[in-house]
Amino acid sequence: MPTVAIPTERAPALRYGVAVAASFIGLLVRLALNPLLEDAAPLLLFILPVVFSAWYGGMGPGLLCCGLCALLGDYFLLPPIGSLFGYARDDLVRMISLLLGGVGSSLLFDLQHGTLRRAAATAEALRASEARLRATMEELRRSQAHLAGIIGTAMDAIITVDSAQRIVIFNRAAEQLFLYRADEVLGRPLDILIPVELRDAHRHHVGAFGETGVSRRSMRSPGLLRALRRDGHEFPIEATIAQFDVEGERFFTVILRDVSERLRAEEERRALDRKLREAQRLESLGVLAGGVAHDFNNLLGGILGNAELALEEIPPGSPGHSELQQIQRITRRGTELTHQILATPGRAGFS
After folding, report:
1. Nearest Cα to 53, choosing from 67, 35, 34?
2. Regarding predicted confidence, which is higher, 79 or 252?
3. How many CB atoms lie within 10 A of CB 239?
4. Range of the domain at 306
5. What is the mean pLDDT of the chain?
6. Are 7 and 56 in contact (CB under 8 A)?
7. For 88-143, what is each residue's pLDDT tens digit?
8. How far apart, in whole angstroms, are the C-alpha atoms of residue 42 and residue 177?
9. Residue 233: helix, strand or coil by DSSP?
């Protein structure tokens, strides 16, 4: 923007010096033209240096030049020549006209200079405002680029919707999660990512959240929160929702992730826990069974020993001999079974 020269910005000595010089130059020019003009309008030419001084130096130099021109014109051009303030009535009118013209032109240019000063101040303020605006816009551009980089490289899906729940931001992780490209979903309702039976409830929950004034809320109920991929597959999600206003319009941002693998891992862990508890229960039963078998084996050992002693005392064919043999066989069979139980892995310590 071009700069405007303000007279008051020039050095005072220069401005007032130009006014004095213009006064004498005007006198010299008028004296040089005196043979041609003679007594016609002796002071009219002085209005030019007055106007020039007021234009160049401002009101002060203009008034100085006006006063000097009046004195010089009176002394050198108005009769009686060589004296001051002795002129006739017509010359008085000419003198008053010169003074009024000089004062008027000085005031006029002073107003113009004031306008120029205000215009210059306004232009400077405008340049400063433009510089601040450019700096702000550059900072905003960097912030937007930084935010876009964060959103674009985030591991979690980030989706922003407006107050009508139309999608306005759909990051790369969301593309991978829902199998949509961003340009396919921007401007479309969020319902395309929600199972049909949950859409009404979801709209109600988002609307209720918007009325709370709470800026952020976590939603961690994977059994109740489900999303819908492009291929129609439903999957559980964990989400955090936030709301914010931009120029009076409400926006909602959802950060979500697929928790299918986590739920599967948790289910596998629970299954392993159940198997471990079952194994521990069976081991406890085995320990108990081993203890019982050990005690039973001791009892069988006593019975078998007594039966063998009785068989030594009772000859074959005697009453009770066959019954003792049967007791001996059954006892030995029971002993073999208890040995098998005690020989089972985990029971050796009780054999």
Report:
1. 67
2. 252
3. 20
4. 268-350
5. 84
6. yes
7. 777 788 888 888 988 988 888 888 878 888 888 888 899 999 999 999 999 988 88
8. 97
9. coil
